[in-house]
Amino acid sequence: MKIIKIILVVMLVAMLSFCKSTGSSNDKPNAPSNPTPADNSTNLGIAPLLQWECTDPEGDPLTYDVYLGTNPNPGAAELVAQDLTVTNFNPGTLGYVAKYYWKIVAHDDQKGSTSGPVWNFTTMGFTEDFSDGSANDFVFEDGRWYVASSNLIMEGWENDTPTTAYYNQEFKDFTVETRVGKIESNETLGYIFGLFIRSNGFLGKDSKSSDGYMISVTASGYYRVWIQEGGVVTIIIDWAESPNVGFGLYAFTKIRVDANGSNFDLYFNDIYTDSFTDATFPTGYVGLAAFDSIDGDNEIWWQYFNMSAPEAVKGTAVQHIPTHSDHSPAFSPK
Predict the structure, then answer these.
(1) What is the C-alpha to C-alpha distance for residues 236 and 66, in angstroms, rounded to an integer?
(2) Domain check: are 105 and 188 in the same one?
(3) Is 233 contained in some domain?
């Protein structure tokens, strides 16, 4: 009788071992949880350490796959690490003013796996005040740009062309702010300067391949907004006079744009001034642009360049119906 019991016990142990090895009775890992950074965190540094917690119901050893990117539904393209045996991952340096989505997939040694929820965080903005004598991470179209006296300066000599400097990172939703003024001009107060946003690069080097939104003001107290797309200009907001825009030489205008999806709010000297809605360009570079007229020397100063996450929409949005135009009228003085 004892022999029979021993045989039955051995058979039961063998069966349990077989089931375990085939995974037929294996319990999958618990879902990864307790993320660091916490879900929906904002204003993070651009080199965060990702951490999480995870356990297995049976105490099986676990490995982890990490998915990270700007896709709200991380998939194969966002797989950045596999088979980690620790519950943390250093992604390296990320971008400023960007929303990242990440998830962890846990695997046990019995081929069981469990995907955790998708978490997200938004990285911090930055300020470039040019105080160190350089425009860090800016790309310049040509030699008309330089830094002096804590200003980024565009100095032209009758080139009769636009010129651009942009920050070398693409952005989606953001708030950008700069303070800019015309210092020298010869009968050209009406020529534009301002921000070239969600662009593919330079505004003036090859107008036939330039894409983006030009948010422009003049030293004559006007503003104008247009889309530049493959050499075609589409006017979104035509010439509009505003007391919020500085008038004359050395009259600086603080330009702020809240870009959130297809909605854009414009502020001049801290006063809400206008809005428009357009979905042509969802992402791109953010830069500074000016038109260097044919009528004498031109000097424009940008005092700083701030980027941050978008704020809540303020004011009453105005739906502007774009009108098509050729290239030259967009730059012509008012």
Answers:
(1) 43
(2) no
(3) yes
Residue 252, in any domain of the structure: yes
Domain that holds residue 307: 126-330
CB 208 within 8 A of CB 174: no
Q: Residue 4: helix, strand or coil by DSSP?
A: helix
In sequence order, which residues have a C-beta less than 8 Å from that of residue 134 and are 6 or more positions away? Answer: 147
Q: Identity (one letter) of the amino acid at 205?
A: K
Q: How far apart are CA 68 and CA 92, in angstroms?
A: 12
In sign, the C-alpha dihedral spanning 308, 310, 314, 316 is positive
Counted domains in the chain: 2
- Structure pTM? 0.82
CB 135 within 8 A of CB 152: yes
Q: Count Cβ atoms below 10 Å from residue 247 Cβ, excluding itself.
A: 15
Q: Where in 185-283 does DSSP place strands (E)? A: 192-199, 211-218, 222-229, 232-241, 253-260, 263-268, 271-277
Q: How close are the terminal C-alpha atoms of the chain, in Å? A: 108
Mean pLDDT, 10 residues at a time, the chain of 334 residues: 52 50 76 97 95 96 97 96 98 95 97 96 95 94 94 88 93 96 81 95 79 96 94 93 94 96 96 97 96 84 94 49 49 66
Closest CA to 275 of 287, 289, 260: 260
Measured in degrees and rounded to the nearest 5, phi and psi for residue 322 equal: -60, 145
Tokens of 285: 């570079």
Q: Quick one: how far is CA 83 from the chain centroid?
A: 30
